[in-house]
């Protein structure tokens, strides 16, 4: 029971003072001058004042509140190493049992450390979980916190947490753990294709400096070198980026006996390969509107270096024009087609016909250039069907279709063939979904016979319009109309000329995204996504090899013509190998070089500062490393309730604070001057005063 006194005046305080103060002064004056009856008058005045103040005894019935204790359990992946999970579970069970004996504690158990968003960097964030556990608790009711962890906490503060209660840490693992790890010190995000890229890395060991260790360097799954690294020292590395787009550079070292884990014996760097400036040679045979379309497109691409020559006048033409006015720049045929032809990524002949400008032998050089990996595009016009056609030169061995000599002048809508609907150059071309296509007509087609390669677009009377072919290691494209400029000029609404022309050029230059047969994989969170680009109707399932070596099968479903996709929900972080037919791909699932595995050795250091700042402690759960009572296979300290001013830890015990907070359930009121009691006391005082005055 909690007794207290309270005043509930019957009149306002100003009125009370107005009545009592003059009477009090008269009573005090009587006492000072020792007048007869002054003591009784003073007593009657006190009784009157007490009656007006109305004192009340209060009896409060209160219920004590519990202190809130948070138990933060580290469930991060580093806790899966060795016996740490077992130690954690045994320690948690023991703590819950011991804390359950104390009725003054409200225990909140929070599992933390598991990252739900695997796109983020995986980190053990226990203090964020601790803050959430105490978010609705007043500071005076926080009894303390106990963390069960391996000590690898990435949001540990240097100072004390924002509450006035002890923080205790129970460390899993053992004191004498051994581990080696490798990490990138410098790994650029971008690199030029075919050019060396400077990187650096470091091998770190818990044993400090050691003997040299072999580091295997792999690029896109293929081992390219074995480096010799000195443990603890930064090492330089030079890697050549082979492909445009994403490239995976992996460093790995062998597992050493006694190591905690080999999960950090590998380091991954994702490098986006960027092609250096692409060199394109555009040779125009006759000025026309289509020439300007090709030139504008290539000049608008910042990654393209364009060399453009137009043959305005054949050498045999005699019209009296002075020699010095025939051209601004002499046509450097030998330099372009003999000495530096290998430097070009693409050669385009736009409505070009054979004249004496190029010696006949040079067409052999162009054919050889294609066979050895070069790219050639023929933008054909009526000249291709004439007597001076380049098809009548040694270049014919590189051409996918020979002319029939026919030029069809007839309006038509360019359409995709069945192959064209699946081919990456024309698949999904804007406006191709409707019939007729949602683009303008063309009015000329160059007739060819027996086209080789793939006909992906057709023109008038279903004649080949766009032919793509491979010759040796190179590629050849043939656009059998010179009417593409109508789309560029917006005739009848125009058409996707930029999209089409750019795809043709980039396919010829072997852009990976435009390969007909392509397998790619990527990690989205903890989901492995597989994308198969193919010209076949069914590529079959994909085979997946997980980082632990398990083999799985993923069914590929048709997403659109020429595209099949599949996905696999995974739980392992690391490098996955995906195969389908003769194609393979690599993908990294989960965070790259996650901090969770950057250092897996259990430690007391990270939590020592915040724990000591609150009066708490850090100790290991291993029985040989601390005093305490065994709970299963771990040594737990005893739990002791302590006051806010007392010590909160000892050799074999940890303290948790109790609170003085309580809730009010009921109040009993006993008025002192209420009812007949108050009236009787007042009358007695006044009567005594009257009696004394009457004598």
TrEMBL record:
Keywords: Membrane, Transmembrane, Transmembrane helix
InterPro entries assigned to the protein according to its UniProt record, in alphabetical order: Class_I_gatase-like
Top-level division of the source organism's lineage: Bacteria
Transmembrane recorded as keyword: yes
Residues spanning the membrane: 12-32, 39-58, 670-691
Name of this chain's protein: Glutamine amidotransferase domain-containing protein
Source species taxonomy: Bacteria, Pseudomonadati, Pseudomonadota, Alphaproteobacteria, Hyphomicrobiales
């Amino acid at each position: 029971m909690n007794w207290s006194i309270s005043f509930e005046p019957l009149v306002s305080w100003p009125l009370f003072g107005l009545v009592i103060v003059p009477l009090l002064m008269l009573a005090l004056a009587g006492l000072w001058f020792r007048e007869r009856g002054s003591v009784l008058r003073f007593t009657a005045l006190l009784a009157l004042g007490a009656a007006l103040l109305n004192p009340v005894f209060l009896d409060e019935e209160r219920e004590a509140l519990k202190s809130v204790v948070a138990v933060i359990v580290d469930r991060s992946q580093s806790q899966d190493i060795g016996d740490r999970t077992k130690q954690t579970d045994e320690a948690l069970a023991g703590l819950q049992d011991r804390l359950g004996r104390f009725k003054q504690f409200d225990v909140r158990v929070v599992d933390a450390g598991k990252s739900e968003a695997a796109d983020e960097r995986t980190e053990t964030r226990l203090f964020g979980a601790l803050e959430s556990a105490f978010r609705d608790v007043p500071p005076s009711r926080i009894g303390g916190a106990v963390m069960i962890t391996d000590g690898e906490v990435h949001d540990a503060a240097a100072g004390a947490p924002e509450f006035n209660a002890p923080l205790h840490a129970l460390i899993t693992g053992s004191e004498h753990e051994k581990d080696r790890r490798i990490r990138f010190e410098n790994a650029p995000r971008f690199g030029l294709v075919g050019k060396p890229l400077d990187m650096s890395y470091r091998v770190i060991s818990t044993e400090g400096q050691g003997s040299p260790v072999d580091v295997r360097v792999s690029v896109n799954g293929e081992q390219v070198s074995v480096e010799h690294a000195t443990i603890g020292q930064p090492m330089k590395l030079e890697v050549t980026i082979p492909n445009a787009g994403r490239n995976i550079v992996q460093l790995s070292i062998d597992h050493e006996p006694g190591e905690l884990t080999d999960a950090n014996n590998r380091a991954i760097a994702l490098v986006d390969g960027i092609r250096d400036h692409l060199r394109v040679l555009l040779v125009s045979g006759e000025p026309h509107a289509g020439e300007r379309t090709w030139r504008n497109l290539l000049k608008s691409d910042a990654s393209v270096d364009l060399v453009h020559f137009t043959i305005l006048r054949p050498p045999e033409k005699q019209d009296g024009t002075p020699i010095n006015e025939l051209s601004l720049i002499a046509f450097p045929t030998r330099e372009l087609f003999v000495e530096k032809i290998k430097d070009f990524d693409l050669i385009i002949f736009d409505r070009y016909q054979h004249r004496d400008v190029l010696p006949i032998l040079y067409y052999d050089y162009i054919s050889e250039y294609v066979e050895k990996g070069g790219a050639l595009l023929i933008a054909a016009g009526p000249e291709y069907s004439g007597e001076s056609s380049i098809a009548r030169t040694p270049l014919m061995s590189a051409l996918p279709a020979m002319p029939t000599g026919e030029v069809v002048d007839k309006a038509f809508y360019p359409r995709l063939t069945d192959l064209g609907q699946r081919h990456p150059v024309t698949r999904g071309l804007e406006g191709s979904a409707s019939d007729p296509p949602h683009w303008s007509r063309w009015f000329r087609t160059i007739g060819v016979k027996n086209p080789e390669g793939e006909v992906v677009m057709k023109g008038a009377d279903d004649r080949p319009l766009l032919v793509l072919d491979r010759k040796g290691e190179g590629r050849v494209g043939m656009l059998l109309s010179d009417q593409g400029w109508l789309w560029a000029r917006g005739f009848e609404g125009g058409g996707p000329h930029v999209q089409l022309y750019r795809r043709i050029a980039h396919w010829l230059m072997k852009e990976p995204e435009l390969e007909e047969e392509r397998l790619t994989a990527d990690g989205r969170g903890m989901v492995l996504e597989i994308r198969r680009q193919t010209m076949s109707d069914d590529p079959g399932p994909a085979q997946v090899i997980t980082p632990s070596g398990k083999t799985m099968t993923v069914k590929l479903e048709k997403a659109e013509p020429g595209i099949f996709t599949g996905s696999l929900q995974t739980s392992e972080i690391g490098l996955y190998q995906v195969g389908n037919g003769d194609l393979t791909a690599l993908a990294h699932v989960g965070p790259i070089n996650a901090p969770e595995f950057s250092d897996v050795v259990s430690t007391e250091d990270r939590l020592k500062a915040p724990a000591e700042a609150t009066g708490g402690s850090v100790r290991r759960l291993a029985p040989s490393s601390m005093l305490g009572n065994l709970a299963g296979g771990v040594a737990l300290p005893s739990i002791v309730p302590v006051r806010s001013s007392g010590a909160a830890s000892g050799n074999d015990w940890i303290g948790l604070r109790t609170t003085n907070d309580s809730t009010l359930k009921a109040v009993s009121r006993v008025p002192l001057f209420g009812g007949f009691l108050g009236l009787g006391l007042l009358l007695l005082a006044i009567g005594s005063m009257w009696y004394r005055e009457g004598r």
